[in-house]
């Protein structure tokens, strides 16, 4: 995201990419060095966390940011409303906070396959519920959040709250690299469900075969795999 933001802004702007993990920042630096266009905003990498508190965040960001983009961040922290309150507090008048916390989960497979009951991928998505409930329960300081992200932004004192969703589609047949990433995604989701035993015996057996490169049913043999998802961003503005 820091690459796209820097490429979209003029050289007079500054983009600060902030993360708590050094290896993530190092990977971002390498990626940007290869792909960033010649004319772009000044791009700075800084180590920091929202848990450091407002003053430390402002210091890492170099002041009050006109835009804070929080991508798949908030759900990892125990007090999600408190985290958004902190981020919103960094903004000057007219500043914006954009939250990306997924949207509609991706789909990749036909409804019916040669093995397993029809609707296998839909049941895999449903099987993630117990896993993520477990993750939230085990998150230090976890507090319930019984309302949606637009309400979170309103409660953080922001106005002009809006939502934008983008449909992303990669059509079949996928490239070898995209297919590899789809299989890795599905394997991760199956692993999540197995941790909490939320798959039926029949579905578990079907996924074992579909993800096994040595099985004739391996998904890697198929040419009808695709990726279709919706990504949603919620935006609020400091009055």
Automatic annotation (TrEMBL):
InterPro entries: Methyltransf_12 (IPR013217), SAM-dependent_MTases_sf (IPR029063). It holds the Pfam family Methyltransf_12. Residues 6-97 form the Methyltransferase type domain. This is Methyltransferase type 12 domain-containing protein. It comes from Luedemannella flava.
